[in-house]
Amino acid sequence: MLSPYIVKRIRIKKNNLRKKVLFFLRFFVGVALLYVVFRIVPYKKLFFLLGRASLFHIFLSFLLSLLLNIIVALRWRFILQVLKIEISFKEVLYVYFSSLFFSLFSLSLIISDLFRGSALVWRFRNGEKIVSSVVVDRISGFLALSIVAVSSFLLGRNFLDRDVFWAVIIVSGVSLAFLFFLYHPFLLRWIKKIISKKMLSRIDNLYKELSFLKKNPAAFLKAVTYSLGIQLLSVFSFFLLAKAFFQDVSLFYFFIFVPLITLVAFLPITVAGIGTRELACIYFFSKIGIGKEVSLAISLFNLFFVILLAIGGGVIYVMVYYRWLESAE
Question: According to the 3-state scheme, what is the secondary structure of 207-263?
Answer without folding.
Answer: HHHCHHHHHCHHHHHHHHHHHHHHHHHHHHHHHHHHHHCCCCCCHHHHHHHHHHHHH
